[in-house]
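Before drawing any conclusions, I looked closely at one protein, both as residues and as discrete backbone shape codes, quoted below without any editing:
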Amino acid sequence: LHVGNDRFGPTLPGIRLNYPIPSLSISSFHMTFFAEPTLLDPYGKIYANDTLAEDGIPANFFADSNVRKAFTHLINHSYIINDLLLGEAYQPNTFAPSGLPYVYPDITKYYYDEALAQSYFEAVQFSGTPLTNVGFSVKICYYGSLFGSIAGQLVSSVNKVGEAIYGSPILNKFHALALAIPWNKYLPAID
């Protein structure tokens, strides 16, 4: 991560190391394009592809680019960077931070925008049925307290957009819940 591999020299452009934490840390939010329904559905009800139900999601829920864009625009990067990480982070344009190979700095960063997320949710259809006609329930799984705060912010935003679509909390058909997963269960669950 340093110019000329000199660990006492300057870092590569776009890389910032903070003493005494000389490591690179990357956090991400993964959306499984095709979720496998399980017998007990501990992560929420998963229905067959294109099957909408208010108490779950279709297996191919996140395969829809509008669903992914809606969720992405509900991640409040400013809150994460400034409040949770005390300004000791930045939002890269891609998953990998600038300065590393294969980074495309021309890709536009996503930003927090509830109205834009709402428009993406309103554009989603499965088998011709609009998502907003039926709704959904999704569990945002995470590991660790920092990620719990991020998952909580995302859950709050999903529910808030649902309230805007349906006009009230009582009529809201968008349901999100944060779910803490022990590390020994977390990795197999995302496999």
Notes: The chain has a mean pLDDT of 84. Residues 145-166 form the longest helix (22 residues). The beta strands are 45-47, 56-58, 125-126, 129-130, 136-142, 174-180.
